[in-house]
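Lecture 7 notes: from sequence to structure.
We start with the chain below.
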Amino acid sequence: MICPTCGYQNLPKDKFCKQCGMRLPQVKSSKLPLVIILSFLIFTALGTGVAYHFGVINNDPKYVKYDKLQLTDITGKWKIDDGVGLNKFPKYITITPSEVKYEDDGENYSFKVDKRIILEPGKLVMFSNKDESEHIVVALNKDKLDNIDRVTLYVAGQDDNWGSYIRERK
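Predicted structure tokens for the same chain:
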């Protein structure tokens, strides 16, 4: 606060000038901006929580066409959709930018991904290790689940079976 009489720079909390002793004018601070900011933050948090609860916001990856699909596009923990392939596929698949992990019949499996191969006839992508002895064949689809548009990961199994996976919320 600058003294209007002598021009001395005082602290904002000072009531009297420290140089000339004159009473300093008091500036009234408004709490309105603080109230507006707090209200905005509270309503944003509530709205996000409600949208997340009702599935408007989900953890789906961005849909990518099969010929552009990279392992980084589908990283995360994927849970099998309760209705599709529940008994024939692992319940969870975890995909990192360099590795695929899953549990099957109580055994943990993983393999390092070294190759990406596009399987044109079926519009599928295979991620495998160097010698292709371990691999995962996937397709990313847009589906409607419980009347909500979702991006699901389909994983090829044996005998032309498919497991449908939904990425878990973080």
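Points to note: The chain has one helix and nine strands. The first strand starts at residue 76 and ends at 80.
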